[in-house]
Amino acid sequence: MTDRGTPLVEMRDIELAFGGIKAVDGVSLDLFPGEVVGVLGHNGAGKSTLIKILSGAYRMDAGEIRIDGARVEITNPRDARAHNIETIYQQLALADNLDAAANLFLGREIVNAVGLMDDAQMESETRKIMARLNPNFRKFAMPVKSLSGGQRQSVAIARAVYFNARILIMDEPTAALGVQETKMVAELIQDLKARGIGIFLISHDVHDVMDLCDRVMVMKNGQHVGTERVEDVTDDDILSMIILGKKPERAPEPEGAA
Amino acid sequence: MSDTARAAESRRRRSLFEALEIDTRLVGMIGAFVVLCLGFDFVTDGRFLTPRNVFNLTIQTVSVAIMAMGMVFVIVTRHIDLSVGSLLATCSALMAITQTVYIPEYLGLPMGHPLTAPITIVVGLVAGTMIGAMHGYLIGYLAVPAFIVTLGGLLVWRNAAWYITGGQTIGPLDPNFMAFGGINGTLGETLSWAFGGVAVLAALIVLWRARVEKQRYEFPVKPLWAEIALGALIAAVIMGFVATLNAYQIPTPRLERMWAEAGREMPEGHTAGYGIPISVFVLVILAIIMTIVARRTRLGRYIFATGGNPDAAELSGINTRLLTVKVFAIMGALCALSAVVASARLANHSNDIGTLDELRVIAAAVIGGTALSGGIGTIYGAILGALIMQSLQSGMAMVGVDAPLQNIVVGSVLVLAVLIDIIYRKRTGVT
Ligand SMILES: Nc1ncnc2c1ncn2[C@@H]1O[C@H](COP(=O)(O)OP(=O)(O)OP(=O)(O)O)[C@@H](O)[C@H]1O
Ligand SMILES: [Mg+2]
């Protein structure tokens, strides 16, 4: 449905090796505005590594990244942020000893005329956005260490939403969450999608992915197995792609995907 | 009392503390300090809390306290600096040579020239900052552990100091430079009162502005009476401190000399107090700056974020390597300032200046509540830690405790303080 115009993100032939292990081996992937693309695969398939390249946490060995059709260099998280790429990491990237507001604004603090941080305003903004995302959230004055997994996750999500992400990367956003919070994240994804934000969703839960995504990409051992539109495949097709590392029989095979 | 009742009771007590925003940890530390002072005062028949002894205690604390503030940043970022005592010695040696040899020889300015002290201090500051930054570069960019870099630094800078001076004691130092040492440079009664007044006023303004700011965003504020009581307490402590230092009288012969130097006859029966030592004034100013850096600047926020979760900091776009360089550069600069105070107090540079200071400084920061696991620590805690250590040491000396026993006690107190802190944190769940 969205396969027209310039993609928001194009990752082409991305490679990255850790020592001898090719964690990502020539993977290509694109994303259009208002689209949710799921990334699936076994533990250690290279999903996190692939998207960490996009978010600037790792530097790729080879390949190229285009945003709105233009080639970009992303060598650190600041570059990614400058392109409005926000990431919600698998291992929550929060500083435990700081409160919600300090975490939300980490790296992008609001400062006053003389360059001192305006903590009151940051807390006020945090209260506003949390009222929208997680109305039950009360623990503003405490280090996030004392928050539950779901509460911490909502801080991480609030951070991505507050800074107007155009490209949002969610690495297993619901792994630590209960039913209620998982539903909240699902609703949020729909909401963000409607606003034209492109989302990469990494997950182990095939059903989740089939519900939320427009397309699914499967990886195995660092390699690209296949990318499918969800309406073209069944849960079982995807499962066999994950396990066997092969595209479903009936799907046309334009190139020999490893 | 049943367990649930007890839990409810402790919860209520905690929420009262929370409402009043009382830092129970700070209260505990101040309590321990007060008990310590009163205890020594009792045992020494009132000799411990005389103006004279309080004066000496404060000037002895300054050097370690200055470095302990930098050590807070270092430890908060999960590093350690074992080289501070040696770095102090190198800065001290360099400054001693600068003021006694280089400036008179190459710039032709005699000792006592008004430019000698400022130039010397700048030289020391530049050296300390650069050496610290180099440590930070090795640690941050080249990934050599801080323990190793600064263990090496401990040997290197101790002996660099030796080389610079050829192992000799260098003195006397420039008279203006020595004003930073304590007894040779105080603000005098009037200025001290004025300083106290300004400090009280500033503290009250800070309290009041914080309250107004909170109200503006409709955040909870503590009851007005608590705010007023806190303000009154702070004012009383500051003014009490100034009054004590002002009560320490300058001996008459010295006073006569001072009047004579000013070219005037001293009136009969004239007395004057020392007031706040310039070194203490410097410490207070540095403490204010460091507290602002820690709490209100991005640099401070990044230091704490990096200590809490280095990966999170990195992923949030913080340049943690450069941050490491900055933290160690600050540490180096503070070592240099500490060297000014320490050598000025001794009136000369001696080869063993600052020996074992690294341990005192680390102990002060840790007793003051800085967690070695990173992310937690306060500037005022480190200063209080330095003060507690120094009080313990001088108190025991005054009581006549044997030297080996003194060190045994200080060492044990360090371990005990950390143990109490761990238990406290577990109990309250507060970090
Ligand atoms: N920092 C690293 N250093 C060395 N090897 C790494 C590093 N990060 C990942 N790897 C390796 O790269 C491969 C891919 O890891 P990655 O974290 O991308 O997997 P994943 O698909 O996200 O797995 P999971 O589903 O468990 O999150 C694995 O073999 C892993 O061991
Ligand atoms: Mg992963």
Describe the structure.
The complex is a heterodimer of chains A (258) and B (431). Chain A is 31% helix and 24% strand. Chain A has 258 residues and is an alpha/beta fold. Chain A has a single domain, classed as P-loop containing nucleotide triphosphate hydrolases (Rossmann fold), CATH 3.40.50. Chain A has a 6-stranded mixed sheet, sandwiched between helices. Chain A has a 4-stranded antiparallel sheet with strand order 2-1-4-5, with helices on one face. Chain A is globular and about 60 Å long. Chain B is globular and about 60 Å long. The mean pLDDT of chain B is 89. Chains A and B meet through helix 2 and helix 4 of A and helix 8, helix 12 and helix 13 of B. The site of magnesium ion has 4 residues of chain A, from helix 1.
What's the order of the H and E elements of chain A?
EEEHEEHEHHHEHEHEEH
Shape of chain A: globular
Radius of gyration of chain B: 23 Å
* Relative strand content of chain B: under 5%
SS content category of chain A: alpha/beta
Q: pLDDT under 50 segments of chain B (min length 5)? A: none
Corresponding CATH architecture of the largest domain in chain B: Orthogonal Bundle
CATH topology of chain A: Rossmann fold
Average of the residue pLDDT scores of chain B:
89
CATH class of the largest domain in chain B: Mainly Alpha
- Helical element count of chain B? 17
Give me the CATH architecture of chain A, please: 3-Layer(aba) Sandwich
Could you state the CATH homologous superfamily of chain A? P-loop containing nucleotide triphosphate hydrolases
Number of strands of chain B: 0
